[in-house]
Amino acid sequence: MDQQQQWPSGLTTLGFAVLACNSGLAVYSSWGDAGSVAFVLLADTALLLLFLCLRQFERAAAGRARDDRIKAEVWALTTLLTAMFASRVEPLMPPAVGAVVWAMAVATAAAGFWAFFLSNP
Question: What is the pTM of this model?
Answer without folding.
Answer: 0.81
